[in-house]
Design goal:
Helix content: 40-55%
Largest sheet: 5 strands, antiparallel
Number of strands: 10
Strand content: 5-15%
Distance between the termini: 116 Å
CATH class of the domain at 96-269: Mainly Alpha
Shape: elongated
Structural class: mainly alpha
Strand order of the largest sheet: 1-2-3-5-4
């Protein structure tokens, strides 16, 4: 029944792409591009159309079809599927390009490197060695038309049409009948007497010599051209001459040819071939060998072809991480190869691995991820960052290793634009407050201040108002000089986020206190910032209509565009202070903040005074800054406009670097002193991070440490009202000025106790202490009143008798 017949070509799971055949290969086959119907994955399809009167060619094509299905080797064209009908033969293989077309395209793109050719020839010779030595087969068709290249740049041996057994089974070699292929036959085939002694591989090795000549010199015009090596590299010429020698007996076995070329100084003795050979055997290598290989791989990737990195190195790296326990060593080459991928490919191949790596507890893995976050952050979407990455990253703030804490702080510069409201304004600020107030490493406290200034524009308006002023004010009281500089520069970088009232009442008083700082660099930054803020205040005072324009960003919502204004400020702290942190980690892992040039408070009674540490005087540079300040004064007098963006903050960063360079040598123990001597056993340095964190809600949160002062606060004890003060009359000499207690400058010197207990909160902390004291007094008075009332009732009524009835 004819209507039940099915067309096998239509039901074939692969289809041809409607394009002309590639290359016009000599022989019975035509090469077409194709794809799998189900997935669309690309393939190559060799098609042979059965023609009447071509029985010999049909038998050759069917023999090749059979060889393709039965021969499996990494260097032989991989068979996927096939179709055999009365009208045609279809052989589906991996997607490949004929070598001739591939070489021509590479020449047009800039030429093919010798590294690629060396590995390609290595693969072809290895395939011949497999056929001759393992299968006792003679290929009988080695030429340019029989070699194909896949998407990774790997050379594959095809053209199995005229293959025959070396043992004589099944007859001799089939007749080709194609002049383009017969020109590669060795000269001994023309001798029909059979007196020439030859090896079974002699003919194929002659053809291999022809292939080498064509790769370097182009199409072979005639056999006599083989006498001139042409462009063949000198390291390969001796071995090439052995292949095209007139005596077939001396032509080397394919296996020996590989050994000769891989000898030291040989054509195939290079890093590219060694890398490929290691990748082929990586599954049986020892873990130590894999670690060493991946560590050295990233140095060589720049010299390797891009297609090779994408399609061969990358899958091996992903497999090594998933199943080989390679660990952090795969990160550097992985991200280097990732640069060759498109955005879609990066999302599919790299991002799932990165997300999985962030959940690892391996410290080496975590710190390398943080260091290289800049290479993949643009491919991460906000939901992934907030739900799968940030929860793991924040653990780095509590790590006992200072290097991880520092890298975690730096990574927030990249993560902040992608964080949601809760993670950015609540969770992150809580960790920043803890680091800035309690971390024992000065550079980490400094970098926390720098990072806060750079991400300030991403914070909500309420968080900015509540956090920034208090945070930078706290930084200006840090014993570490670089942190004080960072606090001043933080005010400068976020100047557009403060109201005029805050500038006048909160920021300028803090900056004025730094004009007498022991470090000249801090004083210079303070004077510069004071002039800038005063310029803004003066311009608004002369023209009050500018107030709205000046304060337009104060109550504005968080804007990523505003972050560009602070993109370059204090960059020295994020990059240059790393060396300081490294020295701290190497020489003093648990060293407390340095007290360079900071005077100490008197030692309390009963505590032995520590031996004074000699501190070298910081040299004061003159000339550049004095001239610059004079120029600025002249310019400010001539214009009242706000010129903040014109300030030369690059030179300030260099000055700040000099502060770091002039600090005590961290590598010598005698010049490093602790900023606070622990006098209370509850605050010893051996206290675990977990215990610090458990008490953090009560000690170091932004709400308690950096809260805005209340508008209605009771005056301190002993302060009289203005109406009670004797403004005009004489005052007794034995009474001091009552305003002196209000304007007494709080000491910024650290107390000899733990870092977290220092009184750096300013007026906010003082107001809370006053409130707490008043509340305690009220409770005590109330308790006394209640006890007095109870006593009165008891005396008036007397003791009650047992069983008596209470009438009132």
């Amino acid at each position: 029944m004819w209507f039940f017949a099915r067309d096998p070509v239509r039901d074939f799971p692969f289809e041809l792409i409607p394009e002309p055949p590639e290359g016009g290969l000599p022989g019975p086959w035509a090469l077409h591009r194709g794809r799998k119907k189900a997935t669309g994955s690309p393939v190559s399809i060799f098609v042979y159309d059965v023609k009447p009167g071509a029985e010999e060619q049909t038998q050759v094509a069917k023999a090749a079809f059979k060889r393709f299905k039965t021969l499996r080797h990494p260097n032989i064209l991989a068979y996927i599927d096939g179709l055999e009908t009365e009208k045609c033969l279809h052989v589906v293989t991996e997607a490949v390009t004929p070598l001739g077309i591939y070489l021509k395209a590479r020449v047009e793109a800039g030429g093919l490197k010798e590294l690629e050719i060396s590995w390609g020839l290595h693969q072809i010779v290895k395939a011949l060695s497999f056929l001759v030595n393992d299968c006792s087969l003679i290929h009988n068709n080695v030429c340019m038309a029989a070699v194909f290249v896949d998407r990774a740049g790997e050379w594959k041996l095809g053209g199995l049409d005229y293959m025959y057994s070396a043992q004589g089974n099944g007859g001799g070699p089939p007749r080709k009948g194609i002049p383009e292929l017969e020109q590669y036959d060795p000269p001994e085939l023309a001798d029909s007497s059979g007196r020439v002694v030859r090896e079974k591989w002699s003919a194929d090795m002659w053809r291999l010599g022809c292939l080498i000549w064509e790769v370097f010199n182009g199409p072979l015009p005639r056999a006599a051209a083989l006498r001139n090596p042409g462009k063949i590299p000198k390291t390969l010429v001796p071995h090439y001459c052995e292949l095209v020698g007139a005596n077939p007996k001396v032509r080397p076995n394919p296996a020996r040819f590989l050994q000769n070329c891989q000898a030291p100084g040989g054509f195939m003795s290079n890093r590219f071939v060694e890398t490929n050979l290691f990748l082929e055997e990586i599954q049986i290598k020892e873990p130590a060998e894999k670690q060493k290989f991946f560590q050295e791989l990233s140095k060589s990737l720049d010299a390797f072809p891009e297609d090779f990195c994408r399609h061969k190195v990358l899958p091996q790296l992903l497999t090594a991480f998933e199943f080989g326990n390679a660990g952090a060593v795969v990160l550097t080459p992985l991200f280097k190869v990732g640069k060759f991928l498109s955005a879609e490919e990066y999302q599919q191949k790299i991002i799932p691995v990165v997300v999985k790596m962030f959940s690892s507890t391996d410290r080496a893995m975590r710190i390398r991820l943080l260091q290289q976050m800049e290479q993949f952050i643009q491919y991460l979407d906000e939901p992934t960052v907030n739900t799968q990455i940030f929860p793991h990253v924040v653990h780095g703030f509590l790590d006992t290793n200072p290097a991880i804490r520092e890298q975690t702080v730096k990574s927030m510069l990249l993560l902040a634009p992608k964080l949601n409201e809760a993670n950015l304004n609540v969770e992150l600020m809580k960790h920043f407050a803890r680091l800035q107030a309690k971390d024992e490493q000065g550079p980490i406290r400094c970098n926390t201040t720098v990072c806060l200034g750079k991400i300030g524009s991403y914070l909500s308006a309420s968080t900015r108002h509540r956090v920034l002023t208090s945070a930078f004010s706290r930084a200006t009281k840090d014993p570490f000089a670089a942190s004080r500089v960072a606090g001043v520069l933080g005010f400068a970088a976020t100047h557009n986020l403060y109201s005029m009232n805050d500038c006048a009442q909160k920021i300028l008083p803090v900056l004025c206190g730094l004009t007498v700082d022991p470090e000249k660099s801090v004083r210079d930054q303070a004077f510069k910032a004071i002039r800038s803020f005063l310029s803004k205040l003066e311009s608004v005072s002369e023209d009050p209509t500018q107030l709205e324009e000046v304060e337009k960003d104060v109550h504005a919502a968080s804007s990523p565009g505003m972050g560009g204004a602070a993109a370059s400020w204090a960059g020295w702290a994020v990059t240059g202070v790393s060396s300081l942190t490294s020295k701290l980690i190497r020489s003093h892992p648990t060293t407390a903040p340095t007290e360079t040039n900071i005077p100490q408070r008197p030692t309390p009674e009963g505590v032995p005074a520590p031996a004074p540490t000699p501190v070298p005087a910081t040299p004061t540079t003159s000339g550049h800054w004095e001239t610059q300040e004079e120029d600025k004064d002249t310019a400010e007098d001539s214009s009242a406009a706000d010129r903040w963006d014109d300030e030369d903050w690059g030179s300030l960063e260099q000055e700040a670097e000099s502060v770091l360079a002039q600090q005590d040598d961290w590598s010598t123990g005698g010049q490093v002193s602790r900023a606070s001597q622990v006098s209370n056993s509850d605050h010893k340095s051996s206290k675990s991070p977990e215990s610090d964190w458990s008490s953090w809600e009560a000690e170091g949160s932004w709400e308690q440490g950096w809260q805005e002062p209340s508008s209605q606060e009771p005056p301190p004890d002993g302060t009289r009202l203005a109406s009670e003060y004797n403004w005009g009359g004489p005052e007794s000499s034995d009474k001091g000025d009552p305003f002196a207690t209000l304007f007494a400058r709080p000491s910024t010197q650290p107390r000899p106790d733990s870092w977290g207990e220092d009184n750096w909160e300013g007026l906010e902390t003082d107001s809370r202490q006053v409130k707490a004291e008043l509340a305690r007094k009220k409770r005590e008075e109330r308790r006394r009143e209640m006890e007095a009332k109870r006593a009165e009732r008891k005396v008036a009524k007397g003791p009650m008798k047992l069983g008596a009835r209470k009438l009132d």
